[in-house]
Amino acid sequence: MTELDRSGPDRVAAALRLLPPSCGPVRLVAVDGHAGSGKSTLAGRLAAALGDAPVLHLDDLATHDEFFEWTGRMLGEVIGPLSRGETALYHPYDWNLRAFGPPRPLDPAPVVVVEGVGAGRRALRPFLARLLWMERGPEESWVRGRRRDGPGLSRFWDEWTVAETRHFSEDPSRPFADTLVRECGEGYEWLPGPRVTAGPNQIITHRDDSPAAN
Q: Is the per-residue pLDDT at 42 higher than 80?
């Protein structure tokens, strides 16, 4: 275990800025993990530490009928423009209206965070500068998600857990993660992922003692 690092996400943000661009001029950083594992909270904290970096939530690309069949929209509306240094325009899905909304811009900032289940999928990995995986098991994550969303969405969660299990069995992300991020009582713990070996050049291996978000 490394010594507690009180700089937290600020230290990680500084390391991410030093990575080479991965998608045109952009360093695309993915935050993946099971639904309910804390991805959105982590993405928000990283974005703030990066000076309000843009965050793309994959819930905006998925739909009721296509939980994971959003790869084409991601590549066409987001990856393509960013790789050319252009502002991307994607159409966020409204989960209440069950329809896509007006276009939303996503600027080719130095670092762009992509957050959601499947952010580290096979089709996106060639464009990623770093893949972070929230290290929380599926059952624990789903319990947290169900508690957050309430009983009114229990049927949705029943369908989702089946679809998520199928997705990760066919296209796993964790084996390709650069960094595993674990929430603990004192905050986040950042560990080398399966894709890398810890060593003197490993830039994200520490703990952050700021309070962990729920």
A: yes
DSSP E strands: which ranges in the chain? 27-32, 55-57, 88-90, 93-94, 99-100, 104-106, 111-115, 130-134, 179-184, 187-192, 206-208
Q: Residue 196's pLDDT band (boundaries 50, 70, 90)?
A: confident
Average pLDDT over residues 189-213: 58
Whether residue 182 contacts residue 2, with contact meaning beta carbons closer than 8 Å, is answered with no
Cα separation of 122 and 209, whole Å?
A: 33
Reading the block at residue 200, the tokens are: 């003197």
Q: What are phi and psi of 150, to 5 degrees?
A: 85, 170
* pTM for this prediction: 0.88
- Angle 188-189-190 (CA atoms, 0-180°, nearest 5)? 115
Question: Domains in the chain, please, with CATH?
Answer: 9-208 (3.40.50.300)
Quote the CA–CA distance of 198 and 149 in Å, as a whole number.
Answer: 37
pLDDT band (50, 70, 90) for residue 94 = very high
Q: Which long-range contacts (CB under 8 A, 24 or more apart) does 160-164 make?
A: 160/35, 160/67, 161/35, 163/67, 163/68, 164/34, 164/35, 164/67, 164/117, 164/138
Both structure tokens of 43: 């993405």
Residues with Cβ within 8 Å of 114's Cβ and at least 6 positions away in sequence, in order, are 28, 29, 30, 31, 55, 56, 58, 124
